[in-house]
Every structure is written in C-alpha cells, then in structure tokens.
Design a protein that fits this description.
Elements (H helix, E strand, L loop, with lengths): L3 E4 L3 H13 L3 E7 L6 H5 L2 E6 L10 H11 L3 E3 L9 H9 L3 E2 L4 H8 L1 H10 L7 E2 L6 H11 L3 E5 L8 E4 L5 H16 L4 E5 L5 E9 L5 E13 L2 E7 L6 H17 L4 E9 L5 E7 L6 H8 L3 H9 L16 E8 L1 E2 L5 E2 L2 E2 L2 E3 L7 E5 L6 E2 L6 E9 L2 H14 L1 E3 L5 H9 L1 H4 L7 H4 L1 H4 L8 H23 L22 E8 L2 E10 L2 E6 L2 E9 L4 E6 L2 E10 L2 E6 L2 E8 L14 E3 L4 E6 L6 E2 L4 E7 L2 E6 L4 E6 L6 E2 L4 E7 L4
Bound molecules: adenosine-5'-diphosphate (ADP).
C-alpha cells in the first residue's frame, strides 16, 4: 500500500478520497487554485500546494503542474477523482513515465472508452447490446441528416467525446436536425475540444441503470450490482439509488455479466461503471463506460458495506480485489440526492454567491453527507456548482425515502438558490414513491415538481414578525443598558406610541406584493394582525440563533437568516424569502417591465441571432451565451422590436450586463 498520495481534484471528491486515505494511514497531498486557497479539501489534507489561477484549465486541468507537485511532495500515486484529469489518457501516461501510479485503469482502457463512438465499436464486437444508431467517422451534415432519417425520429445527437449531458440534443423531426447538430457541435467543441458526434435512436421511456464494476491486475473482475439513475434533468443525474427498484435477480445477473464482459473486453483494472439504458420491455443497451469513480458511488457503498476508494487504492497498489463476487450481498436501500446551487424554476440555472448560512442534518448510519464546502465559502462560476451529496440508507426503499425527505427538510442554505425544495418535491411525489421511474420523470411530472411560488403563509409572516420584533427588543435593551436617563422614551422596548395602542407596523415585500402586518404589544407577547386574522405570538431566540416560537399555543422551531433586508425563513420543509421594507428609507427603485435583457451570469457570447430593428415574437431565441460550460439561450420576453444589440460574438460579459434592449409591442 502507498504511504502518500496526491489528490488531483477539489471539493467533495477530494475530501471523500482524503477520508479513506486517513483511515488507512496514508498521507495526503492536496492541490489548489487561487479560488480554493481556503477550501475544505486544503484544510483536510496533510499537505497542500498552490497550482495556479482559478479557472480549471489554468490549474486543475494542467497535468504538468500536478506532476510537479507529485514529485516535489514525494507522493507515490495520484488519485484523479472524477471530472478534471480522471479520464485523460495523456495524464495517466505522464504519471507512468514519472513512475507515479495513476489510480485508475490502464491508459488503453481509458482511450478505448474515451470516445463513445470507439467504445460502441468495441462493445459491438464483444456482443454487448447497443441502441440502434450511427457511430462511424462520416461527419458530413447531409450524411448525418440522412442517417437520422433512416434511424427514424426521434434521434439523439451525442458528442463522441461527451460527458455530463453536454453536447447532446434530442431531435424530434428532420426540420430541426441541422440547427441541433450545429449547436451540439459547438457545445462539444468548447467543452471537449472535439466536435465529432454520433447518432442514436432516442428511446422515449428508458431507465438509466448502470453497473459498478471492479477489476484487479490478477485477472479478477466482478460487479457490485446496479444503480438506478433515471431521475435526470437535461440528461444529468439528480437522484440515484441502489438497488434499482423492481430489479429481478435474473436481470441483475444478465446486466452484471454484460458489464463484466465489457470490462474484460478492454483489459480493465480498477473502478468503472458500465451505463445501460433499460427499456420498458426489459431489454438493455450499452451506452458508455466511465473509467473512473462515479459521483453516485456512495449508494453502492451504503448497500454493500464496501469502501470503493479503499478498493481503488488496494488495486492500484497491486493487491487483489478484497472479495469474490459470491461474497458480495445487498443490504437495504440507499438514495443519493445531489444538492446544487441552482434555480430549478429558471431551468436549473446555476446560482453563484457566498454560502452565508449553511446547516446540514446530522450524520448517522442512515444519513451521510459528502461535501467540500463550509459556511462562508463561495460558489463561483469557475467550477461545478454542487454543494453536497446527501445519501440516505434504510432497510427498505420506503424507509430510505422517508429519511431523504426528512434530511432534505433539514438542509439549510442561504446565499445561493438551491434545488433542495425541488429534490424534496421529487422525493414526495407519489410516482417516485411507486418507483415509476424513467429518464422522462421530471419532464412528465413538471406540474407537481415546480409548484407556482405561493405568497407567504400567515405562519411564515408570523415567524418573520416575531424574529424582527425579538431582535429589535434585544437591540433596544442592549442600548437601554447604557443609559443614565431611566425615563427616556427612546429606550422603551414595548413599542410605546403617544396617544395610541403600543404597536409596530411591518412591511414585507413578498415577490411582487407588499404585505403589511401590525404588531400590537401585549404583556409578554405580541398580537399580530395578519392577512388571515389575529395571532398571539410569543417566543425567544436561543443561543444557536433558532427562533423558538409559540403561535396561538402551537410551538415550533424556525431559523430566520438575515441577509441585509432579506429574511430567509426556514420552518419544517418550507423556505421563504421576504424583504423587510422600511418606508422611511428612500423608495426602492423597481425595474420596469421588459426593456433590457441582461446576462444571468458572467459568460461569453457565442451566437447573435437578431439585429437592431428586428421584429421579434415572445420566446424567440435572440442570443446564445456560454456560461459554466453550458449554452444558455436568451429569448425575447415579449413581442416587440429589438432596439439595440450591445455585444458581438466572442465578447465576454459580466453578470448583469445589458445584452440587448427590446421595445415591447404595446409601446413600440
Ligand atoms: P453523458 O456521458 O453526457 O452523461 P450518456 O451517454 O451517459 O451521456 O447519456 C446521459 C443520459 O442521456 C442517459 O442517462 C439517458 O437519460 C439519456 N440518453 C442517452 N442516450 C439515450 C437514448 N439513446 N435514448 C434516450 N435517452 C438517452
């Protein structure tokens, strides 16, 4: 076994690898960019080395910088994690040349699976079933369009070098093929430096079921069962579980054998995942093989009791696999939820900012949290906006699902928008409870999963008022303690008003509306006049900052986090944001309807489809930006005329930059 390893990654996966290494008594070396100088993975490692500026291509993606640190630190092996250099064959080769072990498969296996097209060819030869399609070299648009017609729509265009759902477009009819091809190729070129694509028949209701495989250098290969990753958005996994609901021992054995055959066909060593599409009739098709540890590996660990990072380290140091196929069993059920800084209501647009408040459920045998961030950390545009992976386990799926809902309700994040409520809605959906899973789940159940934003309930308003009033009282008492004038009315803390009942009027901006609540001071409580009627409220703020409230005799605990004038009220599984409006301050400027179209985040303009003077219809694409490695289309918010186009292709724009301006029809 190694004495010291370098982890060529960041955030949760770096922390995850460090945890196992520490348990095995292996020293760890971290690397970090400018943005990560005070990151958690740096703090957890025994040693850490700065490798460059924040953009990954100038730091984490530079093999020579990583190898230099490996040599300087005396690390015997490099664990690449996932993403970054984990599937980079040149990097693996460079490690070997420097006599440093790459903790991953042999380079020819990485190469063989690196291109989805080449991988399909190998699998075809090894008689692993494939989805009908085209994975040849001819990339001429006309040829591809004709081939798509022959395959029959709907067709899926995939970047051969793709991953993470990028460079992938579903095409429903011939008329939109060319446009989709161009867009897929653009995203593939910028994401992977390779614009080759393949075509597949698009299955309309498949499940994504993948098999975890492992092989060693002694000729042993086995699988650690399956994971169901059907709950996806934009072809990216959102929730993963193991075992796959409804899986029969026969099908498991068949898929497991196919996956092991796939691994053997390329002389595989280490951890790998063979991904299949499982159709409703039980047929399954090879999609691709990922030659690394997967983000969702914890669900497999939870049901098998194995530590896959330990397996990787043992295999890489030349040991045989820790057990035989017949020694592995499945115990209980595990589900993983990926908690992201993103806004589900805005098509899962990444959200950036400082994690000003972060509280997580406690970890136990039932709840595991793999994270790489702490309160105060920044979610920046430089990296993937994942905050954490929340993994739950129980003896059966229903139990795991209950735990998931509970843990999601307890996950508190302020400072960025997150998908926790959305994940909670998926977990609470009857179709999910019935395990009615396929990759179209989110699209099909849109209505139940993206509820309209409701105005704050009386309970939320009452909690917000109580928090404001209790904090005001505490503040006033603090000042009163310094006074020498015992009778000064300025130090009274019970809302005294001349010639009137003691009261305060609070104004809350809630979305587009303003709600007024009058709080009357009563002996040791407040009488709140809420939209739905009066409520007697009392409470206190405990030493952890929690609000212990009593509303008409009903006790509850809430957390109210202030962010300037913004109040984030978190109670049970509800999070609501209100802005406390102070009418004595200057009138807040409200932005006019429509008008300008601003960049939702920093990025680069990659296409402009309109010009000044053009008449446009609501929803028409006007401009395409690339941000966080994804394409984002800016569409017309209303019918009207484009007044100005402020940037050209190639321009780099800041968050909030006015990209174009539009004169809506009624004023045009
Ligand atoms: P990536 O490497 O970008 O993640 P994959 O090839 O693994 O791409 O596919 C990602 C997801 O896209 C799959 O999990 C599945 O939901 C969907 N998908 C891929 N191929 C097909 C297909 N032929 N038909 C229907 N859905 C597909």
């Amino acid at each position: 076994m190694f004495n010291k390893i370098l982890i060529a990654n960041r955030s949760e996966i770096a922390c995850r690898v460090i945890r196992t290494a520490k348990r095995l008594g292996i020293r760890t070396v971290a690397v970090y960019s400018d943005a990560d100088a005070s990151a958690l993975h740096v703090a957890l490692a025994d040693e850490a080395y700065h490798i460059g500026p924040s953009p990954a291509r100038e730091s984490y993606l530079r093999p020579e910088l990583i190898l230099d640190v490996a040599k300087r630190s005396g690390a015997q092996a490099v664990h690449p994690g996932y993403g970054f250099l984990s599937e980079n064959a040149e990097f693996a080769e460079a490690c070997a040349a420097a006599t440093i072990v790459f903790i991953g498969p042999p380079t020819n296996a990485i190469r063989a699976m690196g291109s989805k097209s080449a991988a399909k060819q190998i699998m075809e030869d090894a008689v692993v079933p494939l989805v009908p399609g085209y994975h040849g070299d001819n990339q001429a648009p006309d040829f591809l369009r004709d081939t798509a017609g022959r395959i029959g729509y709907p067709v899926l265009i995939k970047a051969s070098a793709g991953g993470g759902g990028k460079g992938m477009r579903v095409v429903w009819e011939g008329a939109t093929f060319e446009e989709s091809l161009a867009s897929a190729k653009r995203e593939a070129l910028s994401g992977f430096g390779d614009d080759r694509v393949l075509l597949e028949k698009y299955l309309t209701k498949p499940r994504h079921v993948e098999i975890q495989v492992f092989a060693d250098t002694h000729g042993n290969a086995l699988h650690l069962f399956e994971r169901d990753c059907s709950i996806q958005r934009r072809h990216q996994k959102v929730l993963e579980e193991a075992p796959a609901p409804g899986m029969t021992p026969e099908l498991r054995a068949k898929m497991g054998a196919a996956a092991v055959a796939a691994a053997r066909a390329i002389g595989y060593v280490g951890a790998g995942t063979v991904e299949f599409l499982l159709d409703q009739d039980g047929s399954f098709y090879f999609m691709e093989m990922n030659t690394r540890l997967q983000v969702e590996h914890p669900v497999t660990e939870m049901i098998t009791g194995q530590d896959l990072v330990e397996w990787q380290l043992r295999v890489a140091s030349g040991e045989p696999l820790p057990c035989r196929q017949d020694e592995l069993t499945i115990s209980g059920h595990a589900i993983e939820a990926r908690i992201y800084a993103e806004d589900p209501a805005r098509d899962f647009f990444p959200s950036i900012g400082t994690l000003s408040h972060l509280r997580t459920p406690s970890e136990s045998t039932h709840v595991r949290i793999d994270t790489g961030v702490r309160q105060g950390d920044e979610v920046s545009i430089n990296y993937d906006p994942m905050i954490a992976k929340l993994i739950v386990w129980d003896t059966d799926r229903a139990g795991a699902l209950r735990r998931l809902q509970q843990a999601l309700a307890e996950y508190q994040v302020v400072g960025v928008t997150t998908n926790t409520s959305f994940l909670g809605a998926v977990a609470a959906h009857p179709a999910f409870a019935e395990a009615n899973l396929d990759t179209g789940f989110i699209e099909r159940n849109r209505e139940g999963l993206f509820p309209e934003v409701q105005p704050a309930s009386d309970k939320i308003l009452a909690l917000a008022c109580l928090d404001v009033l209790l904090r005001r009282d505490a503040e006033a008492k603090k000042y009163a303690a310094f006074t020498t004038d015992l009778y000064s009315p300025w130090h009274l803390t019970h809302g005294w008003r001349p010639n009137s009942d003691n009261h305060h009027v609070l104004y809350f901006i809630d979305g587009d509306a303003t709600t007024t609540v009058t709080a009357l001071y009563r002996k040791s409580c407040f009488l709140l006049e809420l939209p739905g009627g009066q409520v007697v409220a009392r409470g206190e703020i405990d030493e952890t900052g929690n609000l212990l409230a009593d509303l008409d005799g009903m006790r509850m605990t809430a957390t109210v986090v202030r962010h300037g004038a913004e109040l984030n009220i978190m109670s049970a599984s509800v999070t609501h944001c209100l802005t406390l409006f102070d009418p004595s301050a200057q009138t807040a400027e409200r932005e006019g309807e429509g008008g300008c179209l601003t960049a939702p985040m920093p990025g680069k303009i990659i296409a402009v489809m309109t010009e000044a003077g053009a008449q446009v219809k609501r929803g028409m694409p006007l401009l395409i930006m690339e941000a966080m490695k994804m394409e984002h289309t800016i569409t017309a918010p209303a019918d009207g005329m484009v007044a100005t186009v402020n940037y050209t292709v190639g321009a780099v724009v800041n968050d909030g930059a006015e990209l174009l301006s539009l004169i809506p029809e009624e004023t045009a």
